[in-house]
C-alpha cells in the first residue's frame, strides 16, 4: 500500500487534533476531540482501528492492530476491528495491542497491553506494567508497581477535559495538523 492510499483510509473527525509528525497507517478512524501528539503511531495492519471521542494519544505511544504471532500477513485471516472508547489516555511510550478498550482508561508510560486483553472502563495500567494474558480486566482495576499488583479503585479516572482543551489550543500553534476527513467522504 503506497503512502497516498494509506492516507486516504485515515478518517479524522472534525474537532480532532492530529499532528502531521504522527504516523498513522491503514484503515484508522479518529473521533472528535481526540488529540494525537507528534511521534505517536497508530498502525492498522490486521484490521481497522476505530478511536472514539476525547482520547489523548501522547508522544511515542503505539496503538497497533497487528497480526497474532502465529499468523503471517499473507495467510487467510479474518480482519478484526480494534475499538477504543471515549476519554482514554495513552501516555508517552506505551504500547496497546488490545482489540477492545472501553472508556476512561489510562495506559501509563511504557506500559504494554496485549492483543488478547479486553480493557473494560475506568482501568489504569501503571507505568512499566505489562499485561499480556487472555482476560477481561474488570472495571476500575488498577495495575501498579514492579509486580503489576492489582486493586480496585472506587471511582474511575477523571476525563482529561482541561488538558485536551489546552492541547487543542496550543498544538496547532507549534505543529502542522493532518486535515480532517469525514467518514464516507472521498476528497477528489
UniProtKB/TrEMBL annotation:
<dbReference type="InterPro" id="IPR011004">
    <property type="entry name" value="Trimer_LpxA-like_sf"/>
</dbReference>
<dbReference type="InterPro" id="IPR027777">
    <property type="entry name" value="DCTN6"/>
</dbReference>
<dbReference type="GO" id="GO:0005869">
    <property type="term" value="C:dynactin complex"/>
</dbReference>
<keyword id="KW-0206">Cytoskeleton</keyword>
<keyword id="KW-0963">Cytoplasm</keyword>
<dbReference type="GO" id="GO:0000776">
    <property type="term" value="C:kinetochore"/>
</dbReference>
<protein>
    <recommendedName>
        <fullName>Dynactin subunit 6</fullName>
    </recommendedName>
</protein>
<dbReference type="GO" id="GO:0070840">
    <property type="term" value="F:dynein complex binding"/>
</dbReference>
<dbReference type="GO" id="GO:0007052">
    <property type="term" value="P:mitotic spindle organization"/>
</dbReference>
<keyword id="KW-0995">Kinetochore</keyword>
<comment type="function">
    <text>Part of the dynactin complex that activates the molecular motor dynein for ultra-processive transport along microtubules.</text>
</comment>
<comment type="similarity">
    <text>Belongs to the dynactin subunits 5/6 family. Dynactin subunit 6 subfamily.</text>
</comment>
Amino acid at each position: 500500500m503506497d503512502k497516498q492510499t494509506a492516507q486516504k483510509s485515515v478518517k479524522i473527525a472534525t474537532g480532532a487534533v492530529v499532528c502531521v509528525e504522527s504516523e498513522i497507517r491503514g484503515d484508522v478512524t479518529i473521533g472528535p476531540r481526540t488529540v494525537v501528539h507528534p511521534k505517536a503511531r497508530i498502525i492498522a495492519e490486521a484490521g481497522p482501528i476505530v478511536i472514539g471521542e476525547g482520547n489523548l494519544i501522547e508522544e511515542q505511544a503505539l496503538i497497533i492492530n497487528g497480526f497474532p504471532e502465529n499468523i503471517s500477513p499473507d495467510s487467510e485471516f479474518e480482519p478484526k476491528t480494534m475499538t477504543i472508547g471515549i476519554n482514554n489516555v495513552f501516555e508517552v511510550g506505551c504500547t496497546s495491542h488490545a482489540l477492545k478498550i472501553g472508556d476512561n482508561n489510562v495506559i501509563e508510560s511504557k506500559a504494554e497491553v496485549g492483543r488478547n486483553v479486553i480493557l473494560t472502563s475506568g482501568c489504569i495500567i501503571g507505568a512499566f506494567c505489562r499485561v499480556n494474558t487472555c482476560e477481561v480486566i474488570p472495571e476500575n482495576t488498577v495495575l501498579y508497581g514492579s509486580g503489576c499488583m492489582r486493586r480496585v479503585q472506587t471511582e474511575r479516572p477523571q476525563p482529561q477535559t482541561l488538558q485536551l482543551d489546552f492541547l487543542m489550543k496550543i498544538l496547532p500553534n507549534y505543529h502542522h495538523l493532518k486535515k480532517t476527513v469525514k467518514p464516507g467522504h472521498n476528497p477528489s
